[in-house]
Specification:
Elements: H1 32-65, H2 69-96, H3 106-123, H4 129-157, H5 163-187, H6 192-206, H7 208-212, H8 221-224, H9 229-234, H10 244-264, H11 267-275, H12 280-309, H13 313-332, H14 336-362, H15 371-398, H16 403-420
Organism: Arthrobacter sedimenti
Membrane topology: Multi-pass membrane protein
Pfam families: MFS_1
Length: about 425
């Protein structure tokens, strides 16, 4: 079955689905202007995510309770990630049914960015752990609404033969966002309040080019069908038995993201407490810069290369193994040169992985009528590691032997992700 066939999803309706441009299989290549808008949205969202995660939440935690900084960071990020587990598929499903004249995805990109911006500004004034948790959860709620919508726009508008290249550019945007967050962390010199403001401004401005050139056909009201709460909720379950390729693709993405998150979640503290870096925030910027350069190089090369070859799995397997290697380097060489090498290797692996695995995932979606919901379910494999990884990291560092155990665990989990890719049968 083609991934863009339009059968009725579980609990859904086929009413009107075959006649609307919003649900048609994309055949025309997207323009450079549209891709630029997509990339910039990814920049803003990831700056809003990773500036706080990598630097500002940790700095804020130190001002509240320095001895308990690891526990505060783990609590705040885990609660936010728990919200994203629900928000991403929920807003993806809601965007599938949106009949606004501005399109299905664009209203959610705008509304999500506005909410996340407001929550980042409020978080900058939070002087208690409870307020940090509350406002970070709202950041995750808004940013995931925007991310679910912009992610679903790719299978909506980009033909299969262009998806590796577009996926590579989207990965570049994600990486530029992470780097932007690290730059904010370095330039504010420990003033996390200003850092949150910079992230908020970057997010709000980033969505404007896409909104002005959105190429987002409206869904006719009769194509959405009648809303049935029971069917809507049942639609979030995608049977692994009926759609095994989707299930294996989800599992491999989850494992690779857990390995990646374990490698970076305590990076600020690793530089501060193990390596003894004199300016940990600047060290995070250097490592993130190396990582970002390698991600962008491999993403923009591997994505189009996989398009030309018509193959995805060899790239995903190789990049997953490379990500695991980065964890091993950090485990056995806990010095500044080892951190530099680990960042470079992690970037090489993750860049290729982001570009090609994204293209692979869009080819195993069960239904054209529910691309937003299905991509939202896939995106849970990005969000759930943000819950799992901080908990595993806290156990490894506090009770499991320290940072070597943490990085070796990351390496093993990443290798499992490489192994399970071979189970996917419908994509080469």
């Amino acid at each position: 079955m083609s991934p863009f066939h339009t059968p009725v999803p579980p609990g859904g309706t086929s009413e009107g689905v075959s006649t609307t441009a919003a649900l048609s299989e994309p055949v025309h290549e997207v323009t450079a202007r549209w891709v630029t808008g997509l990339v910039l949205v990814n920049v803003g969202i990831n700056a809003a995510f990773f500036g706080p995660i990598n630097v500002f939440i940790g700095q804020q935690a130190i001002t509240i309770d320095a001895p308990g900084k690891e526990a505060i960071l783990s609590l705040v990020t885990a609660c936010g990630a728990a919200v994203s587990l629900v928000a991403n598929p929920l807003f993806g499903a809601l965007s599938d049914r949106t009949t606004s004249r501005f399109g299905r995805r664009s209203p959610w990109v705008l509304a999500g960015a506005v909410l996340a911006t407001a929550a980042l500004l409020a978080m900058s004034f939070s002087g208690a752990v409870a307020l940090m948790v509350l406002f970070w959860c709202l950041v995750q709620l808004g940013a995931n609404a925007a991310y679910a919508a912009i992610t679903a726009a790719v299978p909506d508008r980009v033909p299969v033969v262009q998806r590796g290249g577009v996926g590579g550019l989207a990965a570049m945007g994600q990486t530029l966002g992470i780097l932007t967050g690290a730059v904010f962390g370095a330039v504010v010199s420990g003033n996390f309040m200003v850092g949150y403001w910079l992230c908020a401004g970057a997010l709000l401005l980033s969505v404007l080019p896409y909104l002005f050139h959105r190429n987002d056909p409206a869904l006719p009201k009769d194509a959405a069908g009648r809303f049935r709460p029971g069917g809507f909720l049942r639609g979030f379950w995608i049977s692994p038995r009926c759609y095994p390729d989707f299930a294996w693709a989800w599992l491999t993405r989850f494992l690779v993201n857990v390995g990646n998150q374990l490698t970076i979640v305590y990076l600020l503290f690793f530089l501060r407490d193990v390596i003894g870096h004199e300016d940990p925030a600047a060290g995070v910027l250097v490592l993130t810069g190396i990582y970002a350069v390698m991600v962008m190089i491999t993403a923009v090369l591997a994505g189009p290369w996989s398009d030309r070859m018509g193959r995805r799995k060899p790239f995903v397997i190789g990049s997953s193994a490379t990500i695991a290697m980065a964890g091993a380097i950090m485990a056995f060489f806990p010095v500044w040169p080892g951190a530099l090498a680990g960042a470079a290797v992690l970037g090489i692996g993750f860049g290729a992985y982001l570009a090609v695995d994204f293209a692979l995932l869009t080819q195993v979606l069960p239904f054209a009528v529910s691309r937003g919901k299905d991509m939202g379910v896939i995106n849970v494999a990005n969000s759930l590691p943000q819950v799992v990884a901080p908990a595993l990291a806290l156990l490894a560092v506090t009770y499991g032997g320290g940072y070597r155990t943490l990085f070796l665990t990351a390496a093993v989990i990443g290798l499992l992700g490489a192994v399970f890719v071979v189970k996917i049968k419908g994509v080469n």
